[in-house]
Amino acid sequence: MYSKISCILCGALVTETEPEVPSINWMGAFRALYTVWEDWSQPRISGIGRRNWRDVIPLDEAVATQAPSAIVDEVWLKIKLLVHHFDPALYVEWNSQTVWGFPLHDSCWNLLRLNDPEIPEEAVVHNLFDLCRSQPIQRNVMDWGHDYGGLLAYELAPTAVCPGESAILRARSFIGNTHLSDPINIPELQSVLDQDGLDLASDQSSQLASSNITQDPFAIFPHEILVHILAELDSADVVSLFFASRILASSGLPGPFWRSRFWPGKEFSHIFELCGQGSSAPRNWRQTYGLVKAINDNPALENRRRIWGLASRLNGFIRARKQLKECEGIPMELSEGCGSRKPHRSNRHMGSVSPLCNYFTRGSRALYYRKVLIKGWIKKMTISVNRLNGRTYICGLSFVHQQGVSSIGYHPIGRRTQEINFWASSSCRYLISILEIARDPRGVRGIRILSNEDGWSRWVGDHVDLPKRMIKCERPCEESGEPTISIVAGFDAMKMVLLRTDGERKASLRDTRLWYPEIPGPSLHLIGVEHWRLLEYRGALPHSVCMFGGPDGAWLPHLKEVIVWGIDRSSLGETGNNTLVFGIEFKYNKEVDDGRDSIVLGYASASGMAAPYSSAHRISIDSAGGERITGIDAMYQDPDQMIGFIIYTSSGRRREFPPHCKHYIQVDAEDGCDHFSEELRPPPETCIVGFYSTLEHNEIGVTGSYDKVLMDLGLLCAKKVNTVFERY
Ligand SMILES: [Zn+2]
């Protein structure tokens, strides 16, 4: 069936051919970057295909020899476009999923090649295919981490996400119709190009004459240098320069300057006809510049400029990918995560790595799983990084250890790496005890190492304001033995997307989860998230930590009020997300944290849409009189949404949020609704000093909109060791 799909370069639809609307025929002519089955290493670029009641590309001879007639129609080959999950069961015989790939308009393919013709076509095909396999696909649009030059809007903008969440593109939110215009064949531009040879003499008239205006710093430069300076500058900077230099202002601009406006990186670089070979013909460049400027707001030229920018960006990725060597390490099975899980599973919490058999709509995907064995002590660790979309990502690790050098991932040639050295000298000191990573949904952003005696290394890469996870590498250290650490990592086309140790034992909440902004200290007890439903759904998003008791419980005596922000429409019943918690605010009777007198877990307000329904329930706490929070009952509805909770205090008080929550749960339970609750209490001799929760955008029942809500609750408890707790 015909479904809407978007070009991977420009983001606009690849359409059916519409003979009655010839102006958009270019959108029906597409090429596919494709392969057969799991033949990842042999991608091809197809000839011009078409979409009608099915998607077809011209039959490639290499494929024709294998393909049965079922998917071949004389000269056409059926293809499945924008596939993002792979079912091993389908790779048994030829079928509609056998030939699959990524579409781009023929015009866009041409613009991509014209934008950086020096990259050989084979390198473009090979590297772009791997890059495409590394990007999530939302609603048949490839998510490169940009909005296609403003063509698409965000349903969930990058600036609005909760920690660890992915931005979500909203498809088909086009502003205007410029994206429908053919970016290659532009009659208005052609008529400008045809006017070559216009009044060539006038182009030579502007000469940057040296001058006797001695105070002008540009007076000392000869004509050639001034021309060179001007040609290198952006046009806006040239205007500024004219205000600063009377010589330049009075001389006007020479022909070579106007010509340079069509060079790569300059304002008219997308007029590729006038760059490279096209710029060698005699031409009045000043006049040409004026004529092109006059048609600058032509919709087709606007579309070309937008796609040209996207092509430059993509070619930058292709060049960076081309620089990477092979992915090093011991290869592992690619079907990771698909064995025990149901294929085609849609994972709505995709902050994590999507196995091949799962839908890949957010987060990241590993194209390569690699293992490395580190034997004995380690002398040095080298970390390679890539910069992508303005962010640092780890792309490879290399360990100098007792038995040589072991590397994993990418180590780009000629790129600067960062090193962590271990200088100590005892037999045990060089052992890595813990790796800590900082990550975003797309990959591993930073790493630091805890060695047995040197303590924590500095961070390499980014770590501020990012979720973190620890990876334990503990092995027995005996004088005679040589402890071995087996490190496993997954990589997409450009970066590390997961890191763990092989055979990781079942460990505590603290050791297995992502935490934000920092991993709770080892002295804290973590209580919560035990129900299988929560474990099932919570895996990928970090727990946000709120230490309302302060780092050492010092703020507890100053806590005077707890305010629960949320939506309370419990009178409508508990189902359908009629009650939700946006945030829990802790108010103090003095300034406790950088001058603030309150801190919030989550958010103390709702979005505009949900605001009319929002509520704030308050409970005062007599902390000065020794009252403390002693427990929580968190209540959930199907499958994993927290709808409210009960707070217990040491004064024997009990408060529900929203009020009567438990009553409605019981009523709904009698109606067959599947609710459950978790009773959270601190272990003996400890005291609650913080809460943690997974924050996520979720549907607000009464409004149909999405807002940031607390999905669960957990406790952070500290040992009652100092005088702060003595009144408790
Ligand atoms: Zn396109």
From TrEMBL:
Entry-linked SUPFAM superfamilies: F-box domain
The F-box domain, residue ranges: 215-261
Domain of life: Eukaryota
Pfam families per record: DUF7600
InterPro entries for the chain: DUF7600, F-box-like_dom_sf, F-box_dom
Protein name: F-box domain-containing protein
Organism expressing this protein natively: Bionectria ochroleuca
